[in-house]
Amino acid sequence: MSVLSHAAAAHSPAGTPHCALLPRPFPTHTYAVGDLLTDLRAPSTTTLRTAALSARDYDDTRLTAYYKDVASISPATGNFTRSHGGELLIRKPRRAGTRFCSISAEKASVRALKDPFGAFEKSVRDPAARDWLLRAARARAPVYWVAAVRELTNASYAHAAAADAGNGLLAVRRASFGEQAAAEEAELREDENGDVDGEAMRRKMRGHRRRDSAFEEPTKTKTDVLGAEIREVRVKVTRPDAPHAPRDLKWKWTYLKAADENGEECQVAVGLGAPLDQEEVADLWEEGDLAEEDEEEDDE
């Protein structure tokens, strides 16, 4: 699926950040405002973090005390796929086997930018960024930029019990420890066909049982990164005298002077796209995680 399926304006004025829910909680500083990445799923090895931005560029005014949320959990990967806010009544998901997580935190804070495009220009004009963008363009690698980050302080995560409330709605509440234990035991006893020796048990015995990573892979940090505004970046290497792209709704462009692999002067056109929506962010991880799982099964 293309991550450009929506056509929100890339150059709208700064407003409320579009922080999509990430697939799981990440340790503090895994993603930071101003980061450039080629693979969102591997930030430790594909991120360029420069010192181009300063405290004056950030907007740290958005704080929420006693944060609460309910998140959908993918039955295929165990990833968070959608935020429902603090609602107790939510629409039934179309995907069979979807579970829910109750999230609560002492505090939620969002670091955004006062002038997103101005900050983007600062980020990509850093000398290290110019070389990095050239390498990404030569490798035809996707490029993303982090424009905002949501962090939770002292967060806790638990399965949410869901009950039919009629009219296509589910009533959700935080499950007790006993309910969570019973649900896990039932999952091990039988698979979806009621076969006690079925796939669920075989996966458990092989050590490949799908885990809900939010619960079984703690970040071990007081503050978790759970949301981010992620924007796609387009990079084109052109002749130094190439005309600039016309203004459009999907991209806002800036232009850099650089030297190519032969030392010849070139122009690097760098376009900033609109924030990826929740479905697009979830799909980036879902498709990647499922592909990795298929590779692991092929190797067995």
Structure explained in plain terms:
The protein is 24% helix and 38% strand. With 300 residues, the protein is of the alpha+beta class. It has one domain (20-299). Strands 1, 2, 3, 4, 5, 6, 7, 8, 9, 10, 11, 12 and 13 form a 13-stranded antiparallel β-sheet that branches.
Q: What attributes does this structure have?
A:
single chain; 300 residues; alpha+beta; 13-stranded antiparallel sheet; elongated; disordered N terminus; disordered C terminus
Question: In short, what is this structure?
Answer:
The protein has helices at residues 43-46, 116-125, 127-138, 177-189, 199-206, 213-216, 278-299, and strands spanning 20-27, 36-37, 47-48, 58-73, 80-83, 89-91, 99-113, 143-153, 156-166, 169-174, 223-238, 252-259, 265-275. With 300 residues, the protein is an alpha+beta fold.
User: Low-confidence runs (pLDDT<50, min 5 residues)?
Assistant: 1-9, 190-211, 293-298
Distance between the termini: 28 Å
Tally of alpha and pi helices: 7
DSSP strand content: 35-45%
As a whole number of angstroms, the C-alpha radius of gyration is: 22 Å
User: What is the helix content?
Assistant: 10-25%
User: What structural class should be given to the helix and strand makeup?
Assistant: alpha+beta
Order of helices and strands: EEHEEEEEHHEEEHHHEEEH
Provide the residue-averaged pLDDT: 81
Strands, count: 13
How many structural domains are formed by the residues? 1
**How would the global form be characterised?**
elongated
Major beta sheet, specifics?
A: 13 strands, antiparallel
